[in-house]
Amino acid sequence: MSVAASEIATSTIRELVDANHILFDQGVVDGFGHVSVRHPDRPDRFLLARSMAPALVTEKDVLEFDFDGNPVQKDTPTAYLERFIHGEIYRKRRDVMSVVHSHSPSVVPFSVVSGVKLRPVCHMCGFLSEKGAPVFEIRDFAGPGSDLLITSGKLGAALADSLGEGPAVLMRGHGSTVVGGSLRQTVFRAVYTEIGARLQMDAMRLGPVTFLTEEETVGTTKTISTQYDRSWFLWLKAARNSAMSR
Amino acid sequence: MSVAASEIATSTIRELVDANHILFDQGVVDGFGHVSVRHPDRPDRFLLARSMAPALVTEKDVLEFDFDGNPVQKDTPTAYLERFIHGEIYRKRRDVMSVVHSHSPSVVPFSVVSGVKLRPVCHMCGFLSEKGAPVFEIRDFAGPGSDLLITSGKLGAALADSLGEGPAVLMRGHGSTVVGGSLRQTVFRAVYTEIGARLQMDAMRLGPVTFLTEEETVGTTKTISTQYDRSWFLWLKAARNSAMSR
Amino acid sequence: MSVAASEIATSTIRELVDANHILFDQGVVDGFGHVSVRHPDRPDRFLLARSMAPALVTEKDVLEFDFDGNPVQKDTPTAYLERFIHGEIYRKRRDVMSVVHSHSPSVVPFSVVSGVKLRPVCHMCGFLSEKGAPVFEIRDFAGPGSDLLITSGKLGAALADSLGEGPAVLMRGHGSTVVGGSLRQTVFRAVYTEIGARLQMDAMRLGPVTFLTEEETVGTTKTISTQYDRSWFLWLKAARNSAMSR
Amino acid sequence: MSVAASEIATSTIRELVDANHILFDQGVVDGFGHVSVRHPDRPDRFLLARSMAPALVTEKDVLEFDFDGNPVQKDTPTAYLERFIHGEIYRKRRDVMSVVHSHSPSVVPFSVVSGVKLRPVCHMCGFLSEKGAPVFEIRDFAGPGSDLLITSGKLGAALADSLGEGPAVLMRGHGSTVVGGSLRQTVFRAVYTEIGARLQMDAMRLGPVTFLTEEETVGTTKTISTQYDRSWFLWLKAARNSAMSR
């Protein structure tokens, strides 16, 4: 990365690389999907890898963008088509420090079935809205024949509106975007959104489900918020010990 | 561990470390969940790792607690928030020598669907109650806005009451707790509770299920109780050969 | 193994060890389940490991039994409780050269739901009976309070009767037993019985299923019978390269 | 391979070997299934491994065939029984440069349930026909007692007719065949046909599904067509780092 990086930026970039590898190792992303972090020195910018498979990202692949999705440096390599997801959410949500976009497989079904909502089924996904995650229908903004991708600031802003003040928004026929107040919290949420979706699917096949109350989502989120590092360092070791890291 | 440990305590601690690694490798615990064993020299105490991911536990991470959940040594590192699960069960159940608490993924759905019960679907989970595992609803004890966790002796005692004389209790929107007369038996039960739950879900989707009779639960449990070591040493080798042990 | 083994017996024993490791690596057996082969020099005997996890079996763990389940050598280690499955099937079925008993997870659900039958859903499991695999209900022979296991020659004979002339019999609340005309064919059938059961479960959830006709089971079985080695050597390499073989 | 190969043919053969390993590592093929590529120097021929498990294919196992399924060289080893799938599709479809035939497990259920169709549920499988993939019923061509395999040019031609101008055709009780304009595109489609089928099954269990519109299949396919290399090189690294490559 050619950014003249402060020490904290350097350490943030290292952690962003780890986040890429963790999200692959935990099955949240495959060849696609991406994770960004707000620039620690420049809150009007964010850090995101160049367009590539997350599992293969290294420090030198991390680029710096402004909120319009323009790379700050010149002559940068190809950027993700959907970097606008990140820029527009950072613009709208001052509290958001990190964004994960993925096609994690248990979440996609909830994006294409209008009759059900992804809801918090257990304490580990208590961060999900008790009312259910909103679903962004791109047809409402890009018409009936789009490529379903968030390839412009306008679409990114519409997605950010759909996200609202919540932690996650589903994208119809596409995937989901999860946000948080730190990189580790956001990675944690991305992993447990996938796990919670699987649990909810299994539970719904058994019968009517008792979800967390709104108060319980508050209570669990508060307690779990002290525990992110426990998962982070476990997942980091798993990613580093995996065959992909050989 | 700074405990002045007898030889048997030392060997128990080693086995507890193995149990932590096995439960992770078999998919019963992830970053969360914990396993304890009653202290072999002091039946009024139990051994449990400090608050950390089970896969990473080493001998020096094991702490000694009294039944109120107080660490015996001073200046110990942070303890699991839910150590009260262990203390209160050991207090109430003289026969219990080990306790596993987990969020194992096939069991959680049974905790949130009031119309179905987790029951013994095959001989390997014949230890489960023929009447179905009880489900602990924390709202009845902590109100509608708790964090769902067993963070006090009072809640631990209520959970122990719900467990009764059985081998397992589900915790609504949270997970389950499994007990046994030895560490190896308890680990065995935790693994096969997860496997049995998956089998039951698959079977229920096919049609009405023939579960074990009460007599069959007695018969299978008696026979299987001679076989724990077969699984233990297999799982131990798998855990030690896994990428996480590199 | 203290058997005075002919060269062909030695090579059969080696292949039986491989079969044990393959069945574990392919998810057919876990700590439990077993595979035997008819003795190549003594068709009235069979070879089977001592009571242990299949993944850990070595050549020296293989024992020789007569059809009553008695070990031929004196002072042998503990034998599998259910060796009678093997002896009674070899006694009744001259064509059977190998037997696999397992609790493979997709098959168990079909053993406990009386309204559905395991049937050949695709060409790879065309060896399954078009009429559906029989289900052995041990209550009919051992009463309502057994341990569900085939622990006597009498129960083994009843199971062999239930198997009839077919390739597989399910055992209610327990597992299944698969037979074949060679060790490799039987291992192949055990793996594809599990795969076929999973496919059938998935298909049944989509809607009414078109199974193979009886003629198609004949046609597919004939063709596939020339292909066992292709799978065998693939699975053997996978087992030998797995973490368990380190 | 004894072919007097041009430089481009040599490089094509290398890539075909990689494709074999990727398809195994991604779970599209097991011991069975095969992938071919049209000969880069001779558009009236194709390259395909000899009859063997894809995971074990090396460069010297690749053979050259004409469209009738005859090997070009003499004294070649045994060819796949179903090489006619490849020859007849290349004959009929000038645009097709590669063909994958597999029994990938989430697709087979759609081949045996006549009431449902495999359709594009998300942007990654936007290449699937909006009208649903055709299902080839071999009984219509080979009668009620075939072995379900495409073992002649006549059956290959009938399958190619069923495929029509589309990217994929399901084969009842058997598997599927996927085609594309390059080897990498075809491998990509084979992997995402499997992923999409799993997503569709999960979604259908939740409720009525919103599939992509025909316009959206065009839009997504156009965009995703620029991204195959991202997956290719990820999957290649995964395959090369896997235990099977040791």
Walk me through this protein's architecture.
Four copies of one chain form a homotetramer. Chain A is an alpha+beta fold. Chain A is 39% helix and 13% strand. Chain A is built from eight helices and seven strands. Chain A has a seven-stranded mixed β-sheet, with helices on both faces. In chain A, a hairpin with a 3-residue loop joins β6 and β7 (175-180). In chain A, α1 runs parallel beside α6, α1 (7-25) crosses α8 and α2 packs across α5 (153-163). Chain A is globular, with a radius of gyration of 17 Å. The two termini of chain A are 23 Å apart.
- N- and C-termini, Cα separation of chain A: 23 Å
Largest Cβ-defined interface: A-B, 38 and 38 residues
Q: Total helix count of chain A?
A: 8
Number of strands of chain A: 7
- Rg of chain A, Cα atoms, Å: 17 Å
Largest sheet of chain A: 7 strands, mixed
Spell out the helices and strands of chain A N to C.
HEEEHEHEHHEEHHH
Helix content of chain A: 25-40%
Report mean pLDDT of chain A, rounded to a whole number. 96
Strands of the widest sheet of chain A, in order across it, are 3-2-1-4-7-6-5
Question: Which secondary-structure class do the elements of chain A indicate?
Answer: alpha+beta
Strand content of chain A: 5-15%
Task: Flag low-confidence runs of chain A.
Answer: none
Globally, the shape of chain A reads globular
Oligomer: homotetramer
Brief descriptors of the model:
homotetramer, 7 strands, alpha+beta, 246 residues
Q: Which helices and strands appear, and what pairs or packs with what?
A:
4 copies of one chain form a homotetramer.
Chain A (H helix, E strand, L loop, with lengths): L6 H19 L8 E5 L6 E5 L12 E5 L16 H10 L5 E5 L5 H4 L23 E2 L2 H4 L10 H11 L4 E4 L3 E6 L2 H24 L7 H11 L3 H14 L5
Parallel strand pairs in A: 5-6
Antiparallel strand pairs in A: 1-2, 1-4, 2-3, 4-7, 6-7
Helix pairs in contact in A: 1-6, 1-8, 2-5, 6-8
